[in-house]
Amino acid sequence: MSTSYQIASIPGDGIGPEVVSATIQVVEKLAKTLGTFQINFTHIPWGTNYYKEHGRYLSEDALTTLRKYDAGLFGAVGDPDVPDHISLWGLLLAIRGPLQLYANVRPVRTFPGTKCPLNTATGGIDWMLVRENSEGEYSGQGGRSHVGQPWEAATEVAIFTRVGIERIIRFAFETAQSRPRKHLTVVTKSNSMRNGMVLWDEIAASVAKDFPDVTWDKMLVDAMTVRMVWKPESIDTIVGTNLHMDILSDLAAALAGSIGIAPSSNLDPTRKNPSLFEPVHGSAFDIIGKGIANPVGTFWSAAEMLTWLGEKDASAKLMQCIENVCAAGILTPDLGGSSSTQGVVDAVCSEIEKLK
Ligand code: ATP
Ligand code: MG
């Protein structure tokens, strides 16, 4: 009997439903064609429409519900009618924290059909970005006083814990160790932030001793942006805080060629909770309903999900099918092509058919 996986499908807002439904078609086709695993997607309607109806982004028993699944596939959150900090905290951050999805992992690789704007020896980049996903600058702690007065003040407290830093740095070293180049760059800002960032530096130096086969360096986040553009070949795996890697990962996705293809995994490396997989892009309301959303970021996220679930072979085959389709020039308009979302789905399904 092949393993059967139960997946929570949370399409969310904007183009989320379009890219998630595209991905379900492709993954179901893969499972059926290979016959080596089974997969069932259960639709969960959380998002801004749910909020407009119920006054909350998630159901009250959301965490208990999610824990019944092996993993979650998420589309996007964000709607022009609702301030972003309400939708983001209402949905994604309300899941990531309690489920301790503390590692956000983003492979960044130039794909066939995408154009890396950098001049690299290989014509592209191949990096792995690891973002601390549970604390730091996005702790949500702080407040405002003297509201509306000229002397109004606001604090936004970044909380860094030894446990939180150590577990993400250890995870990043393990990730770097699993890659051919085995190099890790630890990004901080310890020249101007003398508490939490210095603790990051200290813990990195200490954890590094457990990984003698991994080379590593540390870099200030501002200098890192320059290095990403000027010396992309010197980079392999990067780890940093919630805020720093939020910014660097968008930069990296753009440097790889497109935000529409970039995947992201929110992992609980202890595997006590289901991990959540989602494309890097947002709800992109400007193209909603036009049938041209690029589904590749969500396809790749689903491939990452299959790897996490233990289906490495199926994941590699899916990636090959996606790359073949991109290499054949079957691309959505954001990548300069003229294909529709469904056109890309159909082309990937035809590639999968050839795996028989
Ligand atoms: P959010 O506020 O959730 O970040 P957004 O609307 O700002 O959402 P982004 O993901 O930041 O969307 O993308 C910026 C722009 O890039 C979009 O407005 C859209 O034009 C384009 N874009 C993003 N994702 C895709 C995609 N999957 N396919 C095609 N175009 C995309
Ligand atoms: Mg955006």
Describe the structure.
The protein has 356 residues and is α/β, with parallel strands linked by helices. The model has no long low-confidence stretch (mean pLDDT 94). The two termini are 19 Å apart. Helix 1 (16-34) runs parallel beside helix 12 (341-353). The chain is 39% helix and 22% strand. The chain has helices spanning 16-34, 48-54, 62-66, 84-90, 92-96, 162-177, 196-208, 221-230, 242-256, 296-309, 312-327, 341-353; strands at residues 3-12, 37-43, 71-76, 103-109, 126-132, 136-145, 153-159, 183-188, 215-220, 237-240, 263-267, 275-279. It has 2 domains: 1-101 and 264-356, Isopropylmalate Dehydrogenase (3-Layer(aba) Sandwich), CATH 3.40.718.10; 116-256, Isopropylmalate Dehydrogenase (3-Layer(aba) Sandwich). The protein has a 10-stranded mixed β-sheet with strand order 2-1-3-12-11-4-5-10-8-9, sandwiched between helices. A two-stranded antiparallel sheet has the order 6-7. It is built from 12 helices and 12 strands. Adenosine-5'-triphosphate binds at residues 15, 76, 78, 84, 259-260, 281-287, 293-294, 297, 332, 334.
Produce a short descriptive summary.
Helix content is 39%, strand content 22%. With 356 residues, it is α/β, with parallel strands linked by helices. It binds adenosine-5'-triphosphate and magnesium ion.
| Inertia-based shape | globular
Low-pLDDT residue intervals, each spanning 5 or more residues: none
Strand content: 15-25%
Q: What's the story with the biggest beta sheet? A: 10 strands, mixed
CATH topology of the largest domain: the name is Isopropylmalate Dehydrogenase
- Rounded to an integer in angstroms, the radius of gyration calculated over CA atoms is 20 Å
Q: What is the number of beta strands?
A: 12
Strand sequence of the main sheet, in spatial order?
2-1-3-12-11-4-5-10-8-9
List the ligand species: adenosine-5'-triphosphate, magnesium ion
**CATH-assigned homologous superfamily of the largest domain:** Isopropylmalate Dehydrogenase
Through-space gap between termini = 19 Å
Helix count equals 12
Fraction of residues in helix: 25-40%
Number of domains: 2
- The SSE order reads EHEHHEHHEEEEHEHEHEHEEHHH
